[in-house]
Amino acid sequence: MSIAAIGYLRIGTTDAEAWMTFGTEVLGLMTAERDDAQGARFLRMDEHPFRFMLEPTDTDRLLAAGLECRTRSDWLALCEKLRNADVALEAGDPAEAARRCVTEFVTLQDPSGNTLELYYGRRLDYQPLISPTGVSGFVTRDDYGTDLGFGHAVLPTPDMESAITFYTELLGFGVSDDLYPPMPEGAPEARVYFMHADNPRQHSLALYNNPHPGDIVHMMVEVQTLDEVGRALDRAKRAGHPILASLGRHVNDNMCSFYVLAPGGIAVEYGYDGLLVDWSTFTPTVSTEGDYWGHEYQFPGAE
Description:
The chain is α+β, with helices and mostly antiparallel strands. It has helices spanning 16-26, 72-84, 94-100, 160-170, 226-239; strands at residues 3-13, 30-31, 41-44, 52-56, 61-69, 90-91, 104-109, 115-120, 152-156, 174-179, 192-196, 205-208, 218-223, 243-250, 256-261, 267-272, 285-287, 291-294. The protein has a single domain, classed as 2,3-Dihydroxybiphenyl 1,2-Dioxygenase, domain 1. It is globular and about 45 Å long.
């Protein structure tokens, strides 16, 4: 398996200050004090120098997802595999690699046009998290120290079958769950394809079979207690951010979470108790229900 974890997101925002306030005062992330000639702002959650790069843009959208290879040899082998499959790779220059705090990276697009950055050698600074809201810690490692990534992301992939082939056969993701959730009358049929990287988190990436505003369906961060989820929900409500889904628990990854809309429209799942899996004994599942309970969805402007 080539991809070790989903390491970071580059998020384009029309109001970086509002996103920083949301990230620190609602999510409980920490400002990463970094100078950037292009005006980016940074949020951290663990010993990584940042997990989220907020870049000034004319539209609010996901710019790229950073996928980590564990070693240079893994990275080189994956790059060769992609080139042999006629996937265009753009080499990142050293200045941009330093900006991302990685040793080397390449940029590519998946079959639906989502931008990915494959990298290795993240340069950690080991500065401890000091959450401005008192969050004790985010779940980014398991008990054995395996990096689980920042959480997960769900990407829109209207060309679902090509995307599944690309992510599983070329990038080497494993299948976790294939979800066909019940949809309201008149809504398009939905399918969400969950995939795991080379770590125990039940899924690091998922694919959604329809277009979606902002080029990302949602991103997820995980905390260590249910009380921290509840306090974040209270903070989000007090700050007036739209709650897209009430507290609930998912079927496939066991996550107990709520969903909130960040400034600019990106949905953030804030959760606890996500499933960690021994892949040597796991059988991929097919689901027709997304939740054990809760997660009543309410989208802004919907009747």
